[in-house]
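Hi L.,

As promised, DUF3768 domain-containing protein:
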Amino acid sequence: MSEPLATGPFHGGRVAEQNDRFRRSFGADPTLPGRIVITQGVAALGAAALVPLMTALIRFDDFTEDNDPFGLRDFGAFEIEAEGRAVRLYWKIDLFDADERFGSEAPDDPDRTRRVLTLLLPEEW
C-alpha cells in the first residue's frame, strides 16, 4: 500500500524521497521517469553555467517550511556564478500522469507518474 501524498508539513514520504532521487540524479535514474526542462533565461546563461547549475541543483538541501510546506521536496532556490555575477535560480518538480497531460493521480507510483523538473530564473516564474 502506498503512503499518503502528504499529511502535513514535512510528511511527503515516498514522493519526497522520489523527488530527491530524481533531482540528485539530474533525471538519470531509470526507475523515476521524467525530464529536465530549462527556460530561455536559463539557456541564455550559456554552456559555462551548466556545471555549476547542475552541481547546485544536485547538492541542494535547504528545505524549510517556507519553500517546502508539505514536505514534498519539489521546489528550491539557489545562486550560481555565471559570467562573473551571482545569478539566482529556481527549480520546481511537477508530477504528471504517464502521458504528461494531467497531474498524476498516483504521485508516489513511478509507473504512473512522470516528473518534470523545470529550472528557471525568478523573473520567469
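The longest strand covers residues 85-96.

Thanks again for sending the construct details.

K.
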